[in-house]
């Protein structure tokens, strides 16, 4: 076999405690009114692969024992923290105190294409993913530092929210691997 | 409103005929025994956003009128072509005649991390996504030019297949936008 698959040992999986110690606190994602627990779970799974410390949420709180979340998270809800904020303003103030740039992933008239954005090194980044139908809520759009859109060429003109997270996360985090 | 959302007109959606004329024939994806029609549909949706002309498949043929495929494709099965090959060897020979480099997305002992790969400009690329549980089948692993893996830091050590497609597709296609 020219390309033998890695064994389980070679995959170097880590446990939840090691994860917590090594996790990246400088890149985070805010789930703004994400409706589908499948999407939330899927974002957990990818966040675990990216080594992200915390997922924030507002608008809709998805219980971590939700059956659909667990079906797509595949256990990643045990490594990545989840913090729900009833008040957007409170989350905003916390993230700003912590030094985050807050970037909405949204198709707005003045959004910057993802492939054109340049962030200074060591910028702490929080990205917002909006509701599957409505996008990012007005309250967040009044607060964000910038909007970024993933350019697209197709008939549908919308990426699924969990796939958007994968694309934007990889774009910013690829240098951390 | 500091970041007003784009209107439907401003999204510049195109129809299926225009899509077909503009679509990119030089980057494609091979679905090797992908089991979940939700995943297949989700890959269609992202492929439409990326402007990809054709999705290839082997092992499991998902009918385009499959209810679960349509639920996640959201109509993208009307813009992106789908070609199923009963024989891997026949697909391989066609893609090689057409000048494609064939890259398996798989965690193998000698795979190259996605963020380290460099392809010469204008390389035609076909990526293979393997079965959700088994990964890429042995027959393909004997034929591919190279294996690439998306690096990961977590407890789970596996990206969902449709999210893998989003990450790898964006990585190679981000310069085309």
How would you describe the overall organization of this protein?
2 copies of one chain form a homodimer. By secondary structure, chain A is α/β, with parallel strands linked by helices. Chain A has one domain: Alpha/beta knot (3-Layer(aba) Sandwich). Helix content of chain A is 31%, strand content 19%. The first copy, chain A, has 6 helices and 7 strands; from the N terminus they run H-E-H-E-H-E-H-E-E-E-H-E-H. Chain A has helices at 16-22, 37-50, 67-73, 88-97, 138-141, 161-173, and strands spanning 27-32, 54-58, 81-84, 100-105, 112-113, 124-129, 146-149. The first copy, chain A, has a 7-stranded parallel β-sheet, with helices on both faces. In chain A, strand 2 (54-58), helix 3 and strand 3 form a beta-alpha-beta unit. The model of chain A has no long low-confidence stretch (mean pLDDT 95). Chains A and B meet through helix 1, helix 2 and helix 6 of A and helix 1, helix 2 and helix 6 of B.
Strand content of chain A: 15-25%
Order of helices and strands of chain A: HEHEHEHEEEHEH
> At the fourth CATH level, what is the homologous superfamily of chain A?
SPOUT methyltransferase, trefoil knot domain
Helix content of chain A: 25-40%
- Mean pLDDT over the full residue set of chain A: 95
CATH class of chain A: Alpha Beta
CATH architecture of chain A: 3-Layer(aba) Sandwich
Strand count, sense and closure of the main sheet of chain A?
7 strands, parallel
The DSSP helix count of chain A reads 6
Give the spatial strand order of the biggest sheet of chain A: 3-2-1-6-4-7-5
* Rg of chain A, nearest Å: 16 Å
The domain count of chain A comes to 1
Name the chain pair with the biggest interface and residue counts per chain.
A-B, 65 and 65 residues
CATH topology label of chain A:
Alpha/beta knot
Given helix and strand content, the structural type of chain A is: alpha/beta
Distance between the termini of chain A: 27 Å
Anisotropy-based shape of chain A:
globular
The number of distinct β-strands of chain A equals 7
- State the oligomer: homodimer
**What are the low-pLDDT stretches of chain A, counting only 5+ consecutive residues below 50?**
none
């Amino acid at each position: 076999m020219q390309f033998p698959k890695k064994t389980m040992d070679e995959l170097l999986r880590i446990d939840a405690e090691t994860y917590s110690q090594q996790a990246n606190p400088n890149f985070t994602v805010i789930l703004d009114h994400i409706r589908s627990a499948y999407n939330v779970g899927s974002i957990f799974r990818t966040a675990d692969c990216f080594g992200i410390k915390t997922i924030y949420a507002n608008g809709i709180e998805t219980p971590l024992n939700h059956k659909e979340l667990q079906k797509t998270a595949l256990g990643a809800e045990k490594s990545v923290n989840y913090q729900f904020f009833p008040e957007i303003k409170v989350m905003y103030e916390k993230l700003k105190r912590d030094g985050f740039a807050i970037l909405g992933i949204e198709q707005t008239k003045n959004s910057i294409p993802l492939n054109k954005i340049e962030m200074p090194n060591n910028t702490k980044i929080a990205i917002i993913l909006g509701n599957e139908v409505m996008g990012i809520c007005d309250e967040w759009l009044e607060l964000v530092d910038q909007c970024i859109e993933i350019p697209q060429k197709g008939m549908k003109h919308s990426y699924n929210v969990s796939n958007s997270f994968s694309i934007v996360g990889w774009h910013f985090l690829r240098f951390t691997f």
